[in-house]
Write a structure and sequence with these properties.
Helix content is about 75%, strand content about 0%. The chain is an all-alpha fold. Helix 11 (about 265-285) runs antiparallel to helix 12 and helix 13 runs antiparallel to helix 15 (about 345-365).
């Protein structure tokens, strides 16, 4: 891996998604932190790829059209984020509030949590893993970059694609391989190297950001809880979550195993990132069901789960529908249920498209 590759990784997969997520947060009037910006940036990236992939695949269009359009959208939102950051920096210089000092115990827990995270990252890099499902995800991504087309080659035989390829309808409506191809193409790496060595680490850190945000919701600010005690509780929660991940190898199909061994695959991200994200959005919506920005982020999450896996299409719709129904009953607001059903439209649309392709394959033999 050359210096150019490393620079492109930092720009295209770290800096640009973060700045675009910050810009999206400014437009939605979300007062988020760095973890919010990273999460929203990747949700935006996945949503754009997902929306474009199905029509481009069916029309046999160019993959590079998706790649550069996605980059252009991220750059546009990043420009908004940079502008907002500069304005915020000028205003914050005028009013500097005194920050409360953290206790020594809180600092020790924070350093320990970061150290444990880096230890798991080291293990992810050093304990390299190959998986049979790479014959779908990674092979499709390599073929996309090579041919500039999507789903033209049957990954099981290397021959020209036919509808008899059993997983076509899944890969059509859940275009995770296009994201792997995007990561490889934009960093000038093979999608295989980008998936195994780069995305595995970045996506794991993204999951940790998500659990950090979840800890903030579960351990809110109160008059009895000062800044140090809240930080202690959040660090302990994230540490325990990572402890469960590190020792969760009770089955080759467990979500912990997926996170540690093959996070670059879409179904692993749906289990390790998508489902906790829906619960985070449910908790936030329960507190503020009238906040439109939260519903917009939930819609991005729905597209992202559809992008990750065909399983994510169904899970996203079921969890969102049940969550919206419960919040509507608890808050006595029927509008919440309507908004929840509207957020389920992506899942319904991609489910119908996938079933139509599967049915056509069945009747044509």
């Amino acid at each position: 891996m050359s210096f150019t590759n490393i620079l492109l990784i930092l720009i295209m997969l770290v800096l640009l998604p973060t700045l675009s997520g910050y810009g999206l947060g400014r437009l939605l009037r979300v007062d988020g932190k760095l973890s919010d910006a990273v999460i929203m940036g990747y949700l935006l990236l996945w949503t754009v790829i997902q929306i474009m992939s199905v029509p481009v695949t069916l029309m046999k269009g160019s993959f590079r059209l998706i790649a550069w359009t996605t980059a252009a959208v991220l750059i546009a939102f990043a420009a908004v984020g940079i502008t907002a950051f500069i304005k915020q920096g000028k205003s914050s210089e005028k009013s500097k509030d005194k920050t409360e000092k953290l206790s020594v115990y809180a600092l020790i827990l924070a350093v320990g949590c970061i150290a444990f995270t880096l230890f798991i990252v080291y293990k992810i890099i050093s304990l390299y893993h190959f998986d049979a499902d790479d014959t779908r995800y990674v092979v499709n991504a390599v073929d996309i970059v090579r041919t500039d087309k999507i789903l033209l080659t049957d990954p099981t035989s290397g021959t020209g694609f036919t509808l008899r390829y059993g997983d076509f309808y899944k890969d059509l409506v859940s275009s995770w391989s296009v994201f792997l191809a995007y990561a490889g193409y934009m960093t000038r790496l093979s999608p295989t190297i980008a998936a195994h060595t780069v995305l595995h680490v970045l996506l794991y850190l993204l999951i940790i950001c998500l659990y950090w945000k979840l800890s903030g919701v579960l351990i809110p600010e109160t008059e009895e809880r000062d800044r140090s005690s809240r930080l202690e509780g959040r660090c302990i929660m994230v540490y325990l979550v990572q402890l469960l991940i590190a020792y969760g190898y009770y089955s080759v199909q467990s979500s912990e195993t997926f996170i540690l061994t093959r996070l670059w695959q879409g179904k692993a991200m749906a289990a390790g990132f998508g489902v906790p994200l829906l619960f985070l959005m449910g908790l936030r919506l329960y507190e503020k069901p009238d906040r439109k920005s939260l519903w917009a982020i939930l819609l991005l999450a729905e597209f992202s789960l559809c992008h990750m896996s065909a399983m994510g299409i169904v899970i996203a719709a079921i969890v969102t529908a049940v969550m919206s129904f419960c919040i509507a009953i608890a808050k006595k607001k029927p509008l919440v249920l309507i908004l929840g059903m509207l957020c389920c439209i992506p899942s319904a649309a991609y489910f119908v498209i996938g079933r139509m392709v599967d049915f056509y394959k069945f009747i044509t033999g």
